[in-house]
Amino acid sequence: MVARGVTKRFGSMVAVDGVDLEIPRGSVYGFLGPNGSGKSTTIRMLCGLLTPDAGTIDVLGLRIPEQAERLRLRIGYMTQRFSLFEDLTVLENLQFLAAVQGLPRRDARERIDELVRRYAFEDRLDQLAGSMSGGQKQRLALAAAVIHRPELLFLDEPTSAVDPESRRDFWETLFDLADAGTTIMVSTHYMDEAERCHALAILDRGELVAEGTPAALTAALAGRSLLVQAVFTRRVQQALLPLPDVLSVAQVGTALRVLTGAGGREGERILDRIRRTLADSGLEGSVEACAPSLEDVFVAATRVRDREAIGATA
């Protein structure tokens, strides 16, 4: 999948602004970003549901949106909200989706039997979909999305309404699909899910602000994450937040996690400045470098833009 300069506007609002993507087959590729960052809009353009205002999209060798109808039979799409028929049973939903995808009757029976075993629906075939739990609905929606064995699967925040255990099981299923050759693009706002992806893109206000493997993205922040241990954590937080080189100060348990604007030699100077600030404020605390997290990557990518915007309007 290759996208170049993809842009989408809704009136005067630019929802997606010149996004470039290149996603290899058989990978699990994540879209990370806050609400309104353009994740869902980008996914809808990639699968042909929305027409971009600018840019080019090639998916599975097809030009999108010109060849979107041909693409439809080769992809699966699972939305954030449960979109199957709640007044139909599990079996009826799967039968309906098999018919929509054009599966011959015999192939449909075999495929449904396979999915029922894989997703543990043997004792729920006659249960109405609307009476199922969040995790069960999620499994049913995934089974429906892959009933025609798509080459590419789009998942738009698929775990937003399920418990942690169901989220973990869901991701194990995704990796089974990827191992079998399915390319998966999944949008999420959960950091632990983003860390599972082979690669990911961070979107902010429609722009691609960071891209790479989770390991590469966190490695790029070496020396910029600090851990502060102090007695009066809230007072320390208030003392550090105004410093120009500090992007964020977040309390994690009894400690503070500080993200700075630079590493290397400049990072050492920032570290000394933080220690002096604590001493000058009469606050005792230890400050040391720590391994950066994906959340640090996200904050660094988005918070710098916030500060630049403030500076431009000042």
From TrEMBL:
PROSITE patterns noted in UniProt: ABC_TRANSPORTER_1, ABC_TRANSPORTER_2
Residue ranges of every copy of the ABC transporter domain listed in the record: 1-230
GO-annotated molecular function: ATP binding; ATP hydrolysis activity
Superkingdom of the source species: Bacteria
Protein name (database record): ABC transporter ATP-binding protein
Parts forming coiled coils: none
Nucleus listed as a keyword: no
Keyword terms, alphabetized: ATP-binding, Nucleotide-binding
Classification via Pfam families: ABC_tran (PF00005)
